[in-house]
Amino acid sequence: xxxxxxxxxxxxxxxxxxxxxxxxxxxxxxxxxxxxxxxxxxxxxxxxxxxxxxxxxxxxxxxxxxxxxxxx
Length: 72
Hints:
Blueprint: E1 7-10, H1 18-26, E2 31-34, H2 48-63
Parallel strand pairs: 1-2
């Protein structure tokens, strides 16, 4: 599945991606896949357990919204 208007691939997490989440929240929604390169190949994520806890907290604290975060 290639990147689209509502699908974005990122090889690692950076807090700058909270801007993408805000954009998706203000539009029709979307998905960000962390641990995939620009062509959709899996590259993995370091310390994914921490990210599974940190990302939803950052979204909630900074934007006041709840986001679904899943491990695939």
